[in-house]
Design goal:
Helix content is 81%, strand content 0%. The protein has 446 residues and is mostly helical. It has one domain (24-342). It is globular, with a radius of gyration of 21 Å. Residues 1-13, 430-434 and 440-446 have low confidence and may be disordered. Keywords: Membrane, Transmembrane, Transmembrane helix.
Length: 446
Amino acid sequence: MAIDDLHSPLLNREPDIDEITNCGQFVKEAITENKKLWYLAGPAIFTAIAQYSLGGMTQVFAGQLTTLELDAVSTENMVIAGLAFGIMLGMGSALETLCGQAYGAKQLHMLGVYMQRSWIILNAMCICLLPIYIWATPILKFFGQNQEIADLAGEFSLYMIPQLFAYGFNFPLQKFLQAQSKVMAMAWVSGVALVFHVFLCWLLILKLQLGLPGAAAALNISWWIVVLGQFAYIYMGYCPGAWTGFSWSAFRDLGAFARLSIASAIMMCLEFWYYMLLVVLAGQLKNPQIAVAAISICTNLNGWEIMIFLGFNAAISVRISNELGAGRPRAAKFSILVVVLSSALIGIAFLVLVLALRNVYALPFTNSAEVADAVSKLAVVFAFTLLLNSVQPVLTGVAVGAGWQWLVAYVNLGCYYIVGLPLGFLLGSQFDMGVKRIFRLKTSNA
């Protein structure tokens, strides 16, 4: 679909839900809406998977070294970088509301100003997060992580500080481009970065045998390729009207912008931090290296699946904010219905796939038979987790598009932290039900 097709009279008209009286009319309207959603969601899904795969592929190559090094990379990737990723993605999500509604209201000049304000706030937050990277080892040990894993993960965290600041620039760039439906540019940049990253990992980790420093160098370089590639696209004039250059206006109203950014961050972080704490809790079980490796593989694969639905999250957020900004609430409601149905069908497909491949899906990540066996035993719980996670990120996108970040934050707080983690820790450690019981709590919360 060409870019102009998205704004054609057929696709830009508001669905008349009140006149849908039979299945045929519903299917016709749903097909039209799906064209809009997939135009945005397809490249956004590819972008999310490609960028998430930068860390995932690093874990795959680290798994060819030793179980301890896999645990170290997984712990840094899921806990330390996961903490930063959640905060940066959440704070950057404020732009989905602001840029999306500004674009729908034809106030294009504000998109560049909003992005620059987000850069200022997110990079200030990066400086605040630096101590977590610097003192990652004692922090992990304080939360009960295995000493060997904590020591090596802390060393790897120091190497990954450049990635932190890449996050601070990347997510505002993404939301700026998404609001204008410039999703193909993001997909191309992320795809090139992923291909180059795989080559770098092979060269630095396996060929030159640089171990964890090589893994860190590959990951840092690849993330900055993503950032610079997206900015080059914008700077070369492919976003006319939205990017008019650097402006002092970016320093105005930072307080109000920061409040919305913080609300968005809390909403997203409460979920991302849950995965982080699952890895930490697994380090307190019997055979911690096996437990951490098993749950890290499952959460890594779960993360890849979530990236697909984060693509839908981005698409529905843009659709909702654009339609509300243009004063078309019925189109927004119909978009919600269509995207929930589509994502649920994809979730069912993932459930079937995991159950069919239950004995082999861990093999690319590890050469340990014990770890592969532990992952295989999680297949049923893991499959249902994927199914339930197919809808939840999409509904979060609805909330972001409408500006309801605080509501989702309260829901996530209650489900994940008041119910999920305490019960998971109790069943996993005190009742000796192991990593399977801890991971099952993600299913119940989803």
